[in-house]
Design brief:
The complex is a heterodimer.
Chain A (H helix, E strand, L loop, with lengths): L24 H4 L9 H8 L22 E4 L4 E6 L9 H15 L5 E6 L7 H9 L1 H7 L3 H12 L8
Parallel strand pairs in A: 2-3
Antiparallel strand pairs in A: 1-2
Helix pairs in contact in A: 3-4, 3-6
Chain B lengths: L9 E8 L6 E6 L5 E6 L4 E6 L7 E7 L7 E6 L5 E6 L4 E5 L6 E6 L6 E6 L5 E6 L4 E6 L5 E7 L6 E6 L6 E5 L3 E8 L4 E9 L5 E6 L5 E6 L4 E7 L15 E8 L7 E6 L6 E5 L4 E6 L10 E6 L9 E6 L6 E6 L4 E7 L4
Antiparallel strand pairs in B: 1-28, 2-3, 3-4, 4-5, 6-7, 7-8, 8-9, 10-11, 11-12, 12-13, 14-15, 15-16, 16-17, 18-19, 19-20, 20-21, 22-23, 23-24, 24-25, 26-27, 27-28
Classes of the chains: A alpha+beta, B mainly beta.
């Protein structure tokens, strides 16, 4: 990845942040099994910073709650994301950030798939294949430079946007 | 319910081996079957053995640390059983032996630009092969003691090479790649140049692993496309009338096991004693396939005869390995950090 001085997408369209989720009394009751839902997964990834803008993936509409599909019983989570522009060179890095965030926060029973929204990127197939290859993802995560970049993007994921 | 000899074949869990931290990538039986090695993301090679023969309890005998700086992807015994080769994401392959009384790394093979994914020894023990994410396959000659010379750098694949294996009794090398193909290489006797002699195309995504049958006339391959394919060699002048241009053997896909794995198939192992095929899948299941007795050798059918339903791995299964001498004994390892030993039991019916 070559460092860029110029922003690829100078003036991205901004989207509104989602309201904070209300925690119900049912969710707080430890005797009731509370399966993971799309909103909870979305909350884990919407605060991730874009690698080139001081904005979250949610604000850039890269991730959307409606594009998160969770099947708690079958241990599957499918996240589809939309790069801001079809030739975005950060597409793989953004997908990797989403993957790493879910890898770190979710129970290991989950099979997570992260893919580009169909038609949203010129190298959609190649990026999807790379993100699905756990061996290459594992090797990438042993790269100290790359992990630093990813950690920077993920640092924002847990900060309360109101603070 | 009697567990030893049920009516249907079963895969019985024998033991769970724990000790690795994180994902276990690969396991390999010693050719005599008295030792099992394992490796993974914790950068440690563990050598397991038993007190009272293979049926005894398996425990860690030795742990090899400090050989690699990054994940150890694969570990393989030499055919003589005196050497152990380990392939690592640190771009090197280490050769270990026990000449000093305990296992030590006495040679490190360098040259690949990045992660080494697989390492394999030829039957003679005189040749080795490694492959890497740098898209190349390297053939190494064992020159003298602890001396390894690169005999060829093969650039035939267009992507990350996942696996290399040698033919069980010929100096024919097979490799599987992220470019969806399998390739075969051999040395041209005329000029001693290693060349690609076959490209096997049919899978629609990454080919993760390959395994020859006992005689080397068939090859099983497994892929991210969720299928296992069986390839058969047709020699020049074959009775079936399969064309062999240039007088070179042709490998043809004669069977596809589809719809059995719900996710990527990471490994396939072909038992040289029983002919059973085991698969390791990202759907957490170990499956056993057997060729139907009445199937046409040129269009064989493989039936699912057993699988790890309960007591199975909790995450992706990465590798399966049949014991070299005890028929039906199988080892598997997983992202859940565990190694499981299984016994395939024939049904009574």
């Amino acid at each position: 990845m070559t460092p860029k001085t110029d922003l690829e997408n100078i003036n991205p369209k901004l989207y509104k942040r989602t309201e904070e989720r209300e925690v119900t009394t049912k969710e707080l009751d430890p005797t009731i099994y509370d399966p993971f839902d799309a909103r909870e997964i979305f909350d884990l990834i919407r605060g991730i910073n874009d690698p080139e803008h001081p904005l979250s993936l949610e604000e850039l509409n890269v991730v959307e709650e409606r594009l998160v599909v969770v099947d708690d019983a079958r241990n599957t989570i499918d996240v589809t994301y939309t790069p801001t522009i079809p030739h975005c060179s950060m597409a793989t890095l953004i997908g990797l950030c989403i993957r790493v965030q879910l890898l770190r926060t979710l129970p290991s029973r989950f099979k997570v798939s992260v893919k580009i929204s169909p038609g949203a990127h010129v190298s959609e197939e190649a990026v999807n294949k790379q993100l699905a290859d756990k061996e290459r993802v594992a090797a990438a995560l042993e790269n100290s430079h790359l992990i630093r970049v990813i950690n920077e993007c993920l640092a924002g994921a847990f900060t309360d946007p109101k603070l | 319910m009697s567990s030893e000899n049920p009516a249907m074949p079963t895969l019985k869990l024998v033991q769970v081996l724990t000790g690795h931290r994180g994902r276990v990538w690969n396991i390999s039986w010693h050719p005599e079957g008295n030792l099992l090695t394992s490796c993974g993301e914790d950068k440690i090679i563990r050598i397991w053995g038993t007190e009272g023969g293979v049926e005894g309890k398996w425990v860690v005998k030795t742990s090899l640390t400090d050989g690699h700086e990054r994940t150890i992807r694969e570990v393989t015994w030499s055919p003589c059983g005196n050497y152990l080769a380990s392939a690592s994401f640190d771009a090197t392959t280490a050769i270990w032996d026990k000449k000093s009384g305990q296992f030590e790394c006495n040679a490190t093979l360098e040259g690949h630009e990045n992660e080494v994914k697989s390492v394999s020894w030829a039957k003679s023990g005189q040749l080795m092969a490694t492959c890497s994410r740098d898209k190349t396959v390297w053939v190494w000659e064992v020159a003298e003691e602890d001396e390894y010379e690169c005999a060829a750098v093969l650039n035939a694949h267009t992507q990350d090479v996942k696996k290399v294996i040698w033919h069980p009794n010929d100096e024919l090398l097979a490799s599987a790649s992220y470019d969806n193909t399998i390739k075969m290489f051999r040395e041209d006797p005329a000029d001693q140049e290693w060349t690609c002699v076959a490209t096997l195309s049919s899978h629609t995504s990454t080919v993760w692993s390959i395994a020859f049958n006992k005689t080397g006339t068939r090859l099983a391959s497994c892929s991210d496309d969720g299928t296992v394919k069986i390839w058969q060699v047709y020699l020049p002048g074959n009775q079936e009338g399969i064309a062999t241009p240039d007088g070179t053997p042709v490998w043809k896909c004669v069977s596809t096991i589809a719809g059995m794995h719900s996710r990527c198939v990471y490994d396939v192992a072909w038992c040289h004693q029983t002919g059973l095929i085991a698969t390791a899948s990202a759907d957490d299941v170990v499956r056993i396939f057997q060729e139907s007795l009445d199937s046409d050798p040129n269009q064989p059918n493989f039936d699912l005869v057993a699988s790890s339903s309960t007591n199975g791995h909790k995450q992706d299964v990465n590798c399966v390995a049949w014991h070299p001498t005890v028929a039906g004994l199988l080892a598997s390892c997983s992202d859940d950090g565990e190694i499981r030993l299984w016994k395939f039991l024939e049904g009574t019916s």
